[in-house]
Amino acid sequence: MSAAAGKPRLLIVGPPGSGKGTQAAFLAERFDIPAISTGDIFRANIKEGTALGKQVQAIVSKGGYVPDSLTNEIVRDRLHQPDAVEGFLLDGYPRTTDQVVALDALLAESDASLDAVVQLQADTEEVVARLLKRAAEQGRTDDTEDVIRHRLELYAHETAPLIEVFTARGLVVAVDGLGEVDEVTARIDAALAARGIIVPAV
Hints:
8 helices; alpha/beta
């Protein structure tokens, strides 16, 4: 993408085990935009013991979900920071159609909108196998097959309405998330290039 065209405003979605975190980091680095993960922001604030962190900790320690209003406020604050004004990559937000509405309103304030939604797709059985292998390697005994399948079902249930909204807007760039990391990266680059979003030459 040329400097004249500006930096892209992207969203990346993908099931657990699809390599979303890895590809998000690569995309952010190549486009020189911040990767903004609400989960990371929550965890950082909890670790630092900020007022926000204490608020989030109180909610999640009881097994609750952080309300949209609080999540929207956090994203609003982050997108107003200088490094995100020209472009960004969102990961983990929006999670609900209400959050989509809030994001639309926030971006509209500066006459901006999302440029593309990168959707990493992965065969369920392949992902289950990948996550079971990772759990064994990392000694994560809680990650049983049942737990993994439940997480995948939850992801599919949560994201289906979002994908529907963004597909209707013609923003979804669907990419096979399985295979070697550099192969997936190349697929993402090609899919974005087809939409006129070109990775800058190094």
